[in-house]
Amino acid sequence: MRLLIVFLILITGTSLASAQQNAWLIVPGKSIGQIKLESPAQSLAVLGKPDGGDAAMMKAWRIWYSRKKDKRIDSSHMLAVFTAMRTQDTQYVKQIRVNSPKFRTAKGVGPGSTIATIKKAYPDIQRVQAYESANKARKIVVFQDTKQGIAFETVNSRSKKPVCSMVVVFDPGESAAGVLDFHAGFDLMTPVAP
Length: 194
Fold this sequence. Notes:
protein yfey like fold, mainly beta, 194 residues, single chain, globular, 2 helices, 15% helix
């Protein structure tokens, strides 16, 4: 009996550790943490009420920010989910974006990784799009692996060693750039030549 209890504790501990790891896992073309592509928008209720967003023409962005110890919003870390109507009465998750360095792919890359490191992990990524603010002070460059359904953004990538600021997961074969014209904190970003 004692052996059975120890075994159950070990199994429970292992599945708890696995669940904690999956909570921060980015899976290209599938999910970020517990949020899965193609899930109905109602599944986002587990995140609570969004802190912000935008909606129009049967599409919506929902944004959640992390919290400081005193419960105030910490806008430096965010999760953004894009949903679109696929049936008459239900929106589905089409894209997930995250900038917290806690989130990582199984290959160990995520926000905070250099693009050089990301290219080693995902050799098929291509520079596909760039966005610039009207005064040209801010620029976002998007590197994407269309086949796997993952993109990596850099902000102000004029550096010789650009660093990923945001990871985007989308349906394989589609493009993250199709809905990247909305950037939290980057008003009026304009597409420019990559």
